[in-house]
Amino acid sequence: MDKDLKIKFDFNYMMEDFIGEKGIKHQQINEILHKIVKAQENMEIKRKDGKMDFRELPYNQDEVVEEINKFVEDTKGKIENFVVLGIGGSALGPIAVQQAVNHLYYNELTKEKRNGCPKLYVLDNVDPERIVALLDIIDIEKTMFNVVSKSGGTPETMSQFMIIEKMLLDKVGQEKAKELMVFTTDKEKGNLIKISKQKGYKMFIIPEGVGGRFSQLTPVGLLPAAMCGIDIKEMLKGAATMDEMCKAHDIFENPAYMYAILHYIAMTNGANISVMMPYADSLKYMSDWYAQLWAESTGKKYDTEGEVVNRGQTPAKALGVTDQHSQLQLYTEGPFDKIVVLMGVGEYKKTLDIPKVHEDIDSIAFLGGHTQNELISLEQMATEYALLKSGRMNMTITLPKVCEHTVGQLLYLLEVATVFMCELLEVDSFNQPGVEEGKNAMYAMFGKPGYEEKKNELMARPEKMEKYMI
Ligand code: PA5
Questions:
Q1: 86 C-alpha vs ligand 1 centroid, how far in Å?
Q2: Is residue 22 located within the same domain as residue 80?
Q3: What's the whole-model pTM score?
Q4: Are strands 202-206 and 273-278 parallel, antiparallel or unpaired?
Protein backbone atom coordinates (compact mmCIF):
# COMPACT_ATOMS: atom_id res chain seq x y z
CA MET A 1 0.00 0.00 0.00
CA ASP A 2 1.19 3.51 -0.84
CA LYS A 3 1.60 4.97 2.68
CA ASP A 4 1.45 8.51 1.31
CA LEU A 5 -2.10 7.90 0.15
CA LYS A 6 -3.42 6.40 3.37
CA ILE A 7 -6.45 8.11 4.88
CA LYS A 8 -5.97 9.09 8.52
CA PHE A 9 -8.60 8.89 11.21
CA ASP A 10 -8.05 10.98 14.32
CA PHE A 11 -10.52 10.60 17.17
CA ASN A 12 -8.61 12.30 19.99
CA TYR A 13 -11.29 14.92 20.45
CA MET A 14 -14.04 12.39 20.89
CA MET A 15 -12.49 11.34 24.18
CA GLU A 16 -13.09 12.57 27.71
CA ASP A 17 -9.30 13.08 28.12
CA PHE A 18 -9.65 16.13 25.87
CA ILE A 19 -13.31 17.05 25.74
CA GLY A 20 -14.13 16.69 29.41
CA GLU A 21 -17.37 15.35 30.85
CA LYS A 22 -19.24 15.23 27.52
CA GLY A 23 -16.53 13.14 25.89
CA ILE A 24 -16.30 9.37 25.64
CA LYS A 25 -14.61 7.60 28.51
CA HIS A 26 -12.20 4.83 27.62
CA GLN A 27 -14.15 2.75 30.08
CA GLN A 28 -17.27 3.11 27.94
CA ILE A 29 -15.54 1.24 25.14
CA ASN A 30 -14.65 -1.57 27.55
CA GLU A 31 -18.21 -1.70 28.79
CA ILE A 32 -19.53 -2.59 25.35
CA LEU A 33 -16.72 -4.96 24.42
CA HIS A 34 -19.12 -7.92 24.38
CA LYS A 35 -21.28 -6.05 21.83
CA ILE A 36 -18.23 -5.13 19.78
CA VAL A 37 -17.00 -8.71 19.70
CA LYS A 38 -20.44 -9.94 18.68
CA ALA A 39 -20.67 -7.30 15.94
CA GLN A 40 -17.21 -8.29 14.69
CA GLU A 41 -18.21 -11.94 14.58
CA ASN A 42 -21.40 -11.08 12.71
CA MET A 43 -19.44 -9.06 10.17
CA GLU A 44 -17.11 -11.97 9.56
CA ILE A 45 -19.82 -14.62 9.41
CA LYS A 46 -21.98 -12.57 7.08
CA ARG A 47 -19.05 -11.91 4.81
CA LYS A 48 -18.16 -15.60 4.70
CA ASP A 49 -21.78 -16.51 4.04
CA GLY A 50 -21.95 -14.13 1.08
CA LYS A 51 -24.27 -11.71 2.83
CA MET A 52 -22.03 -8.73 2.48
CA ASP A 53 -21.33 -8.66 -1.21
CA PHE A 54 -20.35 -5.00 -1.30
CA ARG A 55 -17.16 -5.99 0.52
CA GLU A 56 -16.04 -8.15 -2.41
CA LEU A 57 -16.42 -5.39 -4.99
CA PRO A 58 -12.78 -4.27 -4.82
CA TYR A 59 -11.76 -7.75 -5.94
CA ASN A 60 -14.38 -9.27 -8.22
CA GLN A 61 -14.93 -6.73 -10.93
CA ASP A 62 -11.94 -7.00 -13.24
CA GLU A 63 -14.13 -8.15 -16.09
CA VAL A 64 -16.73 -5.48 -15.68
CA VAL A 65 -14.04 -2.82 -15.39
CA GLU A 66 -12.60 -4.00 -18.71
CA GLU A 67 -16.07 -3.94 -20.24
CA ILE A 68 -16.77 -0.44 -18.94
CA ASN A 69 -13.42 0.90 -20.12
CA LYS A 70 -13.95 -0.59 -23.57
CA PHE A 71 -17.46 0.85 -23.74
CA VAL A 72 -16.10 4.26 -22.76
CA GLU A 73 -13.38 4.00 -25.40
CA ASP A 74 -15.90 3.06 -28.11
CA THR A 75 -18.14 5.95 -27.12
CA LYS A 76 -15.39 8.55 -26.97
CA GLY A 77 -15.93 11.53 -29.24
CA LYS A 78 -19.41 10.36 -30.22
CA ILE A 79 -21.37 12.06 -27.44
CA GLU A 80 -21.35 15.47 -25.79
CA ASN A 81 -23.24 14.57 -22.61
CA PHE A 82 -23.72 11.61 -20.33
CA VAL A 83 -26.91 11.83 -18.29
CA VAL A 84 -27.61 9.54 -15.36
CA LEU A 85 -31.31 8.86 -14.79
CA GLY A 86 -31.59 7.50 -11.27
CA ILE A 87 -32.36 8.41 -7.70
CA GLY A 88 -30.94 7.82 -4.20
CA GLY A 89 -28.25 5.17 -4.21
CA SER A 90 -28.28 5.23 -7.99
CA ALA A 91 -27.43 8.92 -8.19
CA LEU A 92 -25.66 10.27 -5.11
CA GLY A 93 -22.45 8.27 -5.55
CA PRO A 94 -21.83 9.34 -9.15
CA ILE A 95 -22.32 12.99 -8.14
CA ALA A 96 -20.00 12.69 -5.14
CA VAL A 97 -17.18 10.97 -7.02
CA GLN A 98 -17.36 13.29 -10.01
CA GLN A 99 -17.14 16.36 -7.78
CA ALA A 100 -14.34 14.84 -5.72
CA VAL A 101 -12.01 13.72 -8.45
CA ASN A 102 -12.69 15.94 -11.43
CA HIS A 103 -12.43 19.68 -12.00
CA LEU A 104 -14.96 21.55 -9.84
CA TYR A 105 -16.39 23.17 -12.98
CA TYR A 106 -15.92 20.09 -15.14
CA ASN A 107 -19.00 20.67 -17.30
CA GLU A 108 -17.91 24.22 -18.07
CA LEU A 109 -14.49 23.12 -19.37
CA THR A 110 -13.88 22.85 -23.10
CA LYS A 111 -14.04 19.37 -24.59
CA GLU A 112 -10.23 19.42 -25.00
CA LYS A 113 -9.78 20.20 -21.34
CA ARG A 114 -12.15 17.37 -20.53
CA ASN A 115 -9.91 15.11 -22.63
CA GLY A 116 -12.78 14.49 -25.01
CA CYS A 117 -15.01 13.15 -22.22
CA PRO A 118 -18.69 14.08 -22.15
CA LYS A 119 -20.29 16.46 -19.67
CA LEU A 120 -22.02 14.70 -16.79
CA TYR A 121 -25.53 15.39 -15.52
CA VAL A 122 -27.33 13.39 -12.86
CA LEU A 123 -31.10 13.68 -12.52
CA ASP A 124 -31.72 12.78 -8.90
CA ASN A 125 -35.33 13.99 -8.85
CA VAL A 126 -38.55 14.21 -10.79
CA ASP A 127 -38.97 17.96 -10.55
CA PRO A 128 -40.30 18.85 -14.02
CA GLU A 129 -38.44 22.15 -13.97
CA ARG A 130 -35.11 20.38 -13.61
CA ILE A 131 -35.74 17.90 -16.42
CA VAL A 132 -37.05 20.54 -18.79
CA ALA A 133 -34.12 22.79 -17.89
CA LEU A 134 -31.70 20.02 -18.75
CA LEU A 135 -33.46 19.39 -22.04
CA ASP A 136 -33.07 23.11 -22.77
CA ILE A 137 -29.29 22.86 -22.65
CA ILE A 138 -28.48 19.47 -24.16
CA ASP A 139 -28.85 18.10 -27.65
CA ILE A 140 -30.40 14.69 -27.02
CA GLU A 141 -28.97 13.34 -30.27
CA LYS A 142 -25.51 13.88 -28.80
CA THR A 143 -26.36 12.58 -25.34
CA MET A 144 -26.10 9.14 -23.81
CA PHE A 145 -28.68 8.33 -21.14
CA ASN A 146 -27.71 5.90 -18.41
CA VAL A 147 -30.82 4.55 -16.70
CA VAL A 148 -29.72 3.27 -13.31
CA SER A 149 -32.03 1.24 -11.13
CA LYS A 150 -31.24 -1.83 -9.10
CA SER A 151 -34.91 -2.77 -8.81
CA GLY A 152 -35.65 -1.69 -12.34
CA GLY A 153 -38.98 -0.42 -11.10
CA THR A 154 -38.41 2.81 -9.21
CA PRO A 155 -41.15 5.08 -10.52
CA GLU A 156 -39.05 8.25 -10.43
CA THR A 157 -36.36 6.68 -12.59
CA MET A 158 -38.82 4.87 -14.82
CA SER A 159 -40.75 8.08 -15.47
CA GLN A 160 -37.51 9.86 -16.42
CA PHE A 161 -36.71 6.96 -18.72
CA MET A 162 -40.18 6.97 -20.33
CA ILE A 163 -39.96 10.68 -21.08
CA ILE A 164 -36.49 10.45 -22.54
CA GLU A 165 -37.01 7.26 -24.52
CA LYS A 166 -40.13 8.67 -26.21
CA MET A 167 -38.26 11.85 -27.12
CA LEU A 168 -35.38 9.87 -28.51
CA LEU A 169 -37.58 7.55 -30.53
CA ASP A 170 -39.50 10.49 -31.97
CA LYS A 171 -36.33 12.31 -32.84
CA VAL A 172 -33.82 9.67 -33.89
CA GLY A 173 -35.70 6.37 -34.21
CA GLN A 174 -35.06 3.03 -32.54
CA GLU A 175 -31.75 2.15 -34.18
CA LYS A 176 -29.99 5.36 -33.14
CA ALA A 177 -31.76 5.33 -29.75
CA LYS A 178 -30.01 2.02 -29.10
CA GLU A 179 -26.68 3.76 -29.28
CA LEU A 180 -27.78 6.45 -26.84
CA MET A 181 -29.35 4.39 -24.10
CA VAL A 182 -27.53 2.24 -21.56
CA PHE A 183 -29.04 0.51 -18.55
CA THR A 184 -27.47 -0.38 -15.22
CA THR A 185 -29.67 -2.82 -13.35
CA ASP A 186 -30.11 -6.17 -11.66
CA LYS A 187 -29.44 -9.29 -13.71
CA GLU A 188 -32.92 -10.75 -13.25
CA LYS A 189 -35.34 -8.43 -11.49
CA GLY A 190 -37.32 -5.48 -12.79
CA ASN A 191 -38.52 -3.84 -15.95
CA LEU A 192 -35.23 -2.60 -17.33
CA ILE A 193 -33.97 -6.08 -18.04
CA LYS A 194 -37.17 -6.83 -19.97
CA ILE A 195 -37.01 -3.60 -21.94
CA SER A 196 -33.35 -4.06 -22.68
CA LYS A 197 -34.02 -7.49 -24.12
CA GLN A 198 -36.93 -6.20 -26.22
CA LYS A 199 -35.16 -3.16 -27.56
CA GLY A 200 -31.55 -4.22 -27.54
CA TYR A 201 -30.26 -1.54 -25.16
CA LYS A 202 -26.79 -2.13 -23.74
CA MET A 203 -26.85 -3.23 -20.13
CA PHE A 204 -24.46 -3.33 -17.18
CA ILE A 205 -25.28 -5.53 -14.23
CA ILE A 206 -25.37 -4.60 -10.54
CA PRO A 207 -24.21 -7.65 -8.56
CA GLU A 208 -27.15 -9.37 -6.93
CA GLY A 209 -26.34 -8.89 -3.26
CA VAL A 210 -25.39 -5.22 -3.52
CA GLY A 211 -28.16 -2.71 -2.73
CA GLY A 212 -28.51 0.86 -3.98
CA ARG A 213 -26.64 2.84 -1.35
CA PHE A 214 -23.77 0.34 -1.29
CA SER A 215 -23.43 0.23 -5.07
CA GLN A 216 -21.07 3.08 -5.88
CA LEU A 217 -18.24 0.62 -6.59
CA THR A 218 -20.37 -1.34 -9.10
CA PRO A 219 -21.26 -0.14 -12.62
CA VAL A 220 -23.72 2.24 -10.91
CA GLY A 221 -20.79 4.49 -10.03
CA LEU A 222 -18.03 3.03 -12.15
CA LEU A 223 -19.63 3.71 -15.53
CA PRO A 224 -20.36 7.44 -15.05
CA ALA A 225 -16.94 7.87 -13.43
CA ALA A 226 -15.09 6.14 -16.27
CA MET A 227 -17.11 8.17 -18.80
CA CYS A 228 -15.69 11.30 -17.21
CA GLY A 229 -12.11 10.09 -17.34
CA ILE A 230 -11.86 8.85 -13.77
CA ASP A 231 -9.53 5.91 -13.20
CA ILE A 232 -11.93 3.34 -11.81
CA LYS A 233 -9.28 0.68 -11.33
CA GLU A 234 -7.48 3.01 -8.97
CA MET A 235 -10.70 3.71 -7.10
CA LEU A 236 -11.21 -0.01 -6.55
CA LYS A 237 -7.57 -0.35 -5.47
CA GLY A 238 -8.23 2.34 -2.88
CA ALA A 239 -11.22 0.38 -1.64
CA ALA A 240 -9.09 -2.78 -1.42
CA THR A 241 -6.51 -0.86 0.62
CA MET A 242 -9.22 0.17 3.05
CA ASP A 243 -10.61 -3.35 3.14
CA GLU A 244 -7.27 -4.55 4.51
CA MET A 245 -7.47 -1.97 7.28
CA CYS A 246 -11.09 -2.85 7.99
CA LYS A 247 -10.13 -6.47 8.59
CA ALA A 248 -8.10 -5.59 11.69
CA HIS A 249 -9.36 -7.32 14.83
CA ASP A 250 -7.91 -4.71 17.11
CA ILE A 251 -10.49 -1.94 17.10
CA PHE A 252 -7.73 0.60 17.67
CA GLU A 253 -6.31 -0.43 14.30
CA ASN A 254 -9.63 -0.56 12.48
CA PRO A 255 -10.88 2.89 11.39
CA ALA A 256 -14.34 1.73 10.30
CA TYR A 257 -15.05 -0.16 13.50
CA MET A 258 -13.75 2.64 15.67
CA TYR A 259 -15.75 5.22 13.73
CA ALA A 260 -18.93 3.22 14.37
CA ILE A 261 -18.11 2.44 18.02
CA LEU A 262 -17.57 6.12 18.80
CA HIS A 263 -20.79 7.07 17.04
CA TYR A 264 -22.64 4.36 18.92
CA ILE A 265 -21.36 5.40 22.34
CA ALA A 266 -21.88 9.08 21.57
CA MET A 267 -25.44 8.25 20.61
CA THR A 268 -26.11 6.41 23.84
CA ASN A 269 -24.68 9.52 25.58
CA GLY A 270 -27.30 11.66 23.82
CA ALA A 271 -25.50 12.77 20.66
CA ASN A 272 -28.03 11.67 18.14
CA ILE A 273 -26.85 13.85 15.29
CA SER A 274 -23.70 13.28 13.30
CA VAL A 275 -22.55 16.23 11.23
CA MET A 276 -20.20 15.64 8.33
CA MET A 277 -18.20 18.76 7.59
CA PRO A 278 -15.60 18.47 4.83
CA TYR A 279 -13.14 21.32 4.40
CA ALA A 280 -13.02 20.94 0.65
CA ASP A 281 -15.57 21.75 -2.02
CA SER A 282 -14.46 18.58 -3.77
CA LEU A 283 -15.88 16.55 -0.87
CA LYS A 284 -19.08 18.55 -0.49
CA TYR A 285 -21.30 15.93 -2.11
CA MET A 286 -19.67 13.08 -0.19
CA SER A 287 -21.81 14.35 2.67
CA ASP A 288 -24.96 13.86 0.58
CA TRP A 289 -23.93 10.35 -0.37
CA TYR A 290 -23.01 9.54 3.23
CA ALA A 291 -26.18 11.08 4.68
CA GLN A 292 -28.26 8.66 2.65
CA LEU A 293 -26.05 5.72 3.58
CA TRP A 294 -26.12 6.49 7.31
CA ALA A 295 -29.79 7.50 7.53
CA GLU A 296 -31.32 4.78 5.40
CA SER A 297 -29.18 2.09 6.99
CA THR A 298 -29.35 3.01 10.69
CA GLY A 299 -32.89 4.37 10.88
CA LYS A 300 -35.15 1.43 11.66
CA LYS A 301 -38.38 0.74 13.52
CA TYR A 302 -37.55 -2.89 14.31
CA ASP A 303 -34.37 -4.50 15.57
CA THR A 304 -33.10 -7.78 14.17
CA GLU A 305 -35.26 -9.67 16.69
CA GLY A 306 -38.40 -7.95 15.45
CA GLU A 307 -38.82 -5.71 18.53
CA VAL A 308 -39.97 -2.13 18.01
CA VAL A 309 -36.95 0.04 18.82
CA ASN A 310 -37.17 3.11 16.54
CA ARG A 311 -33.40 3.47 16.38
CA GLY A 312 -31.10 5.49 14.21
CA GLN A 313 -28.74 8.43 14.16
CA THR A 314 -29.48 11.57 12.16
CA PRO A 315 -26.80 12.65 9.70
CA ALA A 316 -26.40 16.35 8.98
CA LYS A 317 -24.36 18.10 6.34
CA ALA A 318 -22.12 21.12 6.60
CA LEU A 319 -19.26 22.54 4.57
CA GLY A 320 -16.09 24.10 5.88
CA VAL A 321 -15.47 26.97 5.92
CA THR A 322 -18.82 28.11 4.52
CA ASP A 323 -20.83 26.80 7.44
CA GLN A 324 -18.55 28.36 10.02
CA HIS A 325 -20.57 31.40 9.07
CA SER A 326 -23.92 29.69 9.44
CA GLN A 327 -24.11 26.49 11.49
CA LEU A 328 -21.01 26.46 13.67
CA GLN A 329 -22.60 28.73 16.27
CA LEU A 330 -25.14 25.98 16.95
CA TYR A 331 -22.48 23.29 17.05
CA THR A 332 -20.35 25.08 19.63
CA GLU A 333 -23.07 26.52 21.87
CA GLY A 334 -26.28 24.63 21.17
CA PRO A 335 -27.37 21.37 22.77
CA PHE A 336 -24.86 18.58 23.31
CA ASP A 337 -26.61 16.40 20.78
CA LYS A 338 -24.03 16.30 18.00
CA ILE A 339 -20.76 14.81 16.91
CA VAL A 340 -18.90 16.66 14.20
CA VAL A 341 -16.90 14.67 11.65
CA LEU A 342 -14.43 17.08 10.11
CA MET A 343 -12.91 16.04 6.82
CA GLY A 344 -9.63 17.57 5.78
CA VAL A 345 -7.27 17.41 2.83
CA GLY A 346 -3.47 17.26 3.13
CA GLU A 347 -2.68 18.64 -0.27
CA TYR A 348 -5.28 20.48 -2.33
CA LYS A 349 -5.12 20.10 -6.11
CA LYS A 350 -4.24 23.77 -6.52
CA THR A 351 -2.27 26.35 -4.56
CA LEU A 352 -3.45 29.92 -4.48
CA ASP A 353 -1.32 32.76 -3.11
CA ILE A 354 -2.87 35.69 -1.31
CA PRO A 355 -0.99 38.73 -2.60
CA LYS A 356 0.69 41.20 -0.27
CA VAL A 357 -1.58 44.13 -0.98
CA HIS A 358 -3.26 46.77 1.17
CA GLU A 359 -0.35 46.55 3.55
CA ASP A 360 -1.46 49.78 5.21
CA ILE A 361 -4.64 48.11 6.55
CA ASP A 362 -3.53 45.90 9.42
CA SER A 363 -6.83 44.07 9.71
CA ILE A 364 -6.39 42.50 6.27
CA ALA A 365 -2.67 42.92 5.58
CA PHE A 366 -1.87 39.91 7.78
CA LEU A 367 -3.44 37.65 5.13
CA GLY A 368 -0.99 38.73 2.42
CA GLY A 369 1.92 36.41 1.70
CA HIS A 370 -0.04 33.36 2.81
CA THR A 371 -2.07 30.98 0.66
CA GLN A 372 -5.75 30.08 0.49
CA ASN A 373 -4.52 26.55 1.25
CA GLU A 374 -3.09 27.67 4.57
CA LEU A 375 -6.24 29.61 5.26
CA ILE A 376 -8.65 26.72 4.74
CA SER A 377 -6.45 24.27 6.68
CA LEU A 378 -6.00 26.68 9.57
CA GLU A 379 -9.70 27.42 9.61
CA GLN A 380 -10.35 23.71 9.91
CA MET A 381 -7.92 23.54 12.81
CA ALA A 382 -9.56 26.59 14.37
CA THR A 383 -12.97 24.93 14.15
CA GLU A 384 -11.57 21.77 15.70
CA TYR A 385 -10.20 23.92 18.50
CA ALA A 386 -13.46 25.85 18.96
CA LEU A 387 -15.33 22.55 19.25
CA LEU A 388 -12.74 21.23 21.68
CA LYS A 389 -12.93 24.34 23.79
CA SER A 390 -16.68 24.14 24.02
CA GLY A 391 -16.51 20.47 24.97
CA ARG A 392 -18.01 19.15 21.73
CA MET A 393 -17.03 15.75 20.44
CA ASN A 394 -15.39 15.83 17.04
CA MET A 395 -13.23 13.59 14.92
CA THR A 396 -11.22 14.17 11.76
CA ILE A 397 -10.76 12.12 8.62
CA THR A 398 -7.86 13.38 6.53
CA LEU A 399 -7.33 12.51 2.89
CA PRO A 400 -3.67 13.15 1.99
CA LYS A 401 -5.10 14.35 -1.32
CA VAL A 402 -8.40 13.85 -3.09
CA CYS A 403 -7.86 11.35 -5.89
CA GLU A 404 -9.31 8.08 -7.12
CA HIS A 405 -7.34 6.03 -4.59
CA THR A 406 -8.32 8.04 -1.53
CA VAL A 407 -11.92 8.41 -2.68
CA GLY A 408 -12.11 4.61 -3.04
CA GLN A 409 -10.77 4.31 0.50
CA LEU A 410 -13.24 6.85 1.85
CA LEU A 411 -16.31 5.27 0.26
CA TYR A 412 -15.34 1.86 1.52
CA LEU A 413 -14.47 3.12 5.01
CA LEU A 414 -17.85 4.77 5.44
CA GLU A 415 -19.72 1.78 4.04
CA VAL A 416 -18.07 -0.65 6.45
CA ALA A 417 -18.53 1.81 9.33
CA THR A 418 -22.23 2.08 8.51
CA VAL A 419 -22.73 -1.67 8.54
CA PHE A 420 -20.76 -2.02 11.78
CA MET A 421 -22.88 0.73 13.35
CA CYS A 422 -25.99 -1.20 12.34
CA GLU A 423 -24.53 -4.33 13.93
CA LEU A 424 -24.05 -2.40 17.17
CA LEU A 425 -27.56 -0.99 16.93
CA GLU A 426 -28.83 -4.49 16.09
CA VAL A 427 -30.73 -3.32 13.04
CA ASP A 428 -30.66 -4.48 9.43
CA SER A 429 -28.25 -2.30 7.42
CA PHE A 430 -29.55 -3.28 4.04
CA ASN A 431 -33.32 -2.85 4.08
CA GLN A 432 -35.47 0.30 3.98
CA PRO A 433 -39.05 -0.71 4.83
CA GLY A 434 -39.84 2.81 6.02
CA VAL A 435 -39.81 4.23 2.52
CA GLU A 436 -42.34 1.67 1.29
CA GLU A 437 -45.42 3.34 2.80
CA GLY A 438 -44.84 6.55 0.86
CA LYS A 439 -44.11 4.58 -2.31
CA ASN A 440 -47.29 2.54 -1.95
CA ALA A 441 -49.38 5.64 -1.38
CA MET A 442 -47.97 7.15 -4.55
CA TYR A 443 -48.66 3.95 -6.54
CA ALA A 444 -52.23 3.95 -5.24
CA MET A 445 -52.87 7.56 -6.21
CA PHE A 446 -51.33 7.05 -9.63
CA GLY A 447 -53.60 4.06 -10.21
CA LYS A 448 -51.00 1.30 -10.30
CA PRO A 449 -52.79 -2.06 -10.67
CA GLY A 450 -52.88 -4.01 -7.41
CA TYR A 451 -53.03 -0.89 -5.21
CA GLU A 452 -56.81 -0.40 -5.24
CA GLU A 453 -57.18 -1.26 -1.55
CA LYS A 454 -54.39 1.11 -0.61
CA LYS A 455 -56.20 3.82 -2.55
CA ASN A 456 -59.39 3.19 -0.57
CA GLU A 457 -57.40 3.33 2.67
CA LEU A 458 -55.87 6.63 1.61
CA MET A 459 -59.17 8.13 0.55
CA ALA A 460 -60.61 7.22 3.96
CA ARG A 461 -57.98 9.20 5.86
CA PRO A 462 -59.35 11.98 8.10
CA GLU A 463 -60.04 15.27 6.31
CA LYS A 464 -57.70 18.12 7.18
CA MET A 465 -59.37 20.88 9.22
CA GLU A 466 -59.64 24.49 8.14
CA LYS A 467 -58.89 25.66 11.68
CA TYR A 468 -55.34 24.39 11.35
CA MET A 469 -54.69 26.24 8.12
CA ILE A 470 -53.82 29.91 7.78
O1 PA5 B 1 -30.24 2.58 -1.06
C2 PA5 B 1 -31.26 2.25 -1.64
O3 PA5 B 1 -31.56 1.07 -1.77
C4 PA5 B 1 -32.18 3.28 -2.24
O5 PA5 B 1 -31.81 4.57 -1.95
C6 PA5 B 1 -32.18 3.11 -3.76
O7 PA5 B 1 -30.90 3.33 -4.26
C8 PA5 B 1 -33.16 4.04 -4.43
O9 PA5 B 1 -34.44 3.89 -3.86
C10 PA5 B 1 -33.24 3.73 -5.92
O11 PA5 B 1 -33.54 2.39 -6.12
P12 PA5 B 1 -33.28 1.65 -7.47
O13 PA5 B 1 -31.83 1.61 -7.72
O14 PA5 B 1 -33.87 0.30 -7.28
O15 PA5 B 1 -34.00 2.42 -8.54
A1: 8
A2: no
A3: 0.96
A4: unpaired
